[in-house]
Design a protein that fits this description.
InterPro entries: Sialidase_sf
Strand order of the largest sheet: 2-3-4-6-8
Number of domains: 2
Organism: Bacteroides eggerthii
Largest sheet: 5 strands, antiparallel
CATH class of the largest domain: Mainly Beta
Number of helices: 1
Helix content: under 10%
Protein name: Lipoprotein
Keywords: Signal
Strand content: over 45%
Length: 406
């Protein structure tokens, strides 16, 4: 080979090596944080893009702003914003060398960088179109409308049950040593009234142009939800009537007998009552498809007239029952649910092993779904009573009563 050709070949080889080195250098190049600067990182599920120009981070259900590099003594603002149809689940963060939950419970935080690197975590989820009102302990009343929760607190009342009728929501419960009633035309603004001669109120329903509430040893009725008249059940003492329902021209209440076995009572007007001798301990009753169905502590019964009752195959403790979409659904402790099309034959289920510590106390049918609520503000919902999904209301309270938003 001629010297000239060899020289050309060597030159080409050196040029190729130099280009490859340059490419490799470009591939391994990383942003450099200058001395005195600090960073804010925002992470989360379903992250799509990060726009370094304005610190905006896109997610499937929303976006967050404030990510990027800052001077060490700069003030920063981070914010999480859900898209339409989504809601913010949580937005937490803190310095990388400190608590990861220094900031929590809000959607926007302002702070000084303090020459530290910061990391935030965000999550969004689709809004669920559930609409209901729930009542519970410590005076809490929850108005839940498609993912937006509004909480009212009326003193330290233990609310037990809730119903709707005559353009009014009525809640009943216990305030110290006497029964307490609250009423509202919109479910958000409430007024209270006392029923001092009824010690405790456990259940309430509406029918035949009147509200009827049941409790310890007595019942009460009202035509407007504000002014109440109490009435005795009969000559027997009751530890408490826990639930009441109206259907087919009749009120039926169930509970726990005192010195008698009479745990079922019925009335055509909500004022004068008769008793049924059934030895049992009952918690709730519902009416649907021509039947009253009652559930309790190891017992369940059904009746077409509220007078003559037949036991069903459902055993175990169930504290709430409702009827909707052609089915009766009962709920209880340890995540138990039961479903029946006739009130006689039941199929039972436990809502996944992870929810066995949940207890459900009340259930209703609203927005084409069964909705159960109970401990720690936990909610389960189902379109058919068989397959259930769960969510949290974000209100860590035991709720015992629920009804649809009308």
């Amino acid at each position: 080979m001629k010297k000239f050709d060899l020289f050309i070949l060597l030159a080409i080889m050196l040029l190729a090596v130099g280009c490859e080195s340059e490419v490799n250098d470009q591939k391994t190049e990383r942003p450099v944080i200058k001395d005195g600067q600090a960073s804010i990182t925002i992470m989360g599920d379903s992250m799509i893009t990060t726009r370094s120009t304005n610190g905006r981070v896109e997610f499937a259900g929303g976006y967050a702003t404030g990510a990027g590099l800052y001077d060490g003594d700069a003030d920063a603002v981070v914010e999480a914003v859900p898209y339409s149809g989504y809601q913010l689940v949580n937005f937490t963060g803190g310095p990388t060398d400190g608590s990861s939950n220094q900031f929590s419970g809000d959607s926007r935080y302002s702070f000084n960088i303090q020459r530290k690197d910061w990391k935030f975590s965000v999550s969004f989820k689709k809004k669920i179109d559930l609409r209901f009102i729930a009542v519970g302990e410590n005076g809490h009343i929850l108005y839940y409308d498609k993912g937006d929760a509004t909480v009212r607190q009326l003193d330290d009342i233990t609310w037990r049950s809730l119903t709707y009728g005559r353009g009014k929501y009525v809640a009943v419960g216990i305030n110290g040593s006497y029964g307490q009633v609250a009423y509202s035309s919109d479910g958000l603004n409430w007024n209270t009234s006392d029923i001092s001669d009824v010690l405790e109120l456990y259940g309430v329903t509406y029918g035949s142009d009147k509200f009827v509430t049941v409790g310890h040893s007595k019942l009460a009725y009202s035509y407007d939800g504000m002014n109440w008249t109490s009435t005795n059940i009969g000559k027997y003492n009751y530890n408490g009537l826990n639930g009441v329902a109206y259907g087919n021209g009749k009120f039926v209440a169930v509970g726990v007998g005192g010195y008698s076995n009479r745990t079922f009572v019925y009335s055509s007007d909500g004022i004068n009552w008769a008793e049924v001798d059934i030895p049992s301990s009952m918690y709730a009753v519902a009416y649907g498809n021509g039947k009253f169905v009652a559930v309790g502590n190891g017992y369940s019964f059904y009746s077409s007239d509220g007078v003559n009752w037949t036991s069903s195959n459902l055993t175990g403790a169930y504290s709430g029952i409702t009827y909707g979409n052609g089915k009766y659904v009962a709920v209880g402790t340890n995540g138990k649910v039961a479903c029946s099309s006739d009130g006689k034959n039941w199929s039972t289920n436990v809502l996944m092993s992870g929810y066995k510590s949940w207890s459900f106390y009340s259930v209703t049918y609203a927005t084409n779904r069964f909705i159960a609520i109970g401990s720690k503000g936990n909610v389960a919902y189902s379109s058919d009573g068989l397959d259930w999904e769960t969510m949290s209301t974000g209100v860590d309270i035991l709720f015992r009563g629920i009804c649809p938003i009308n």
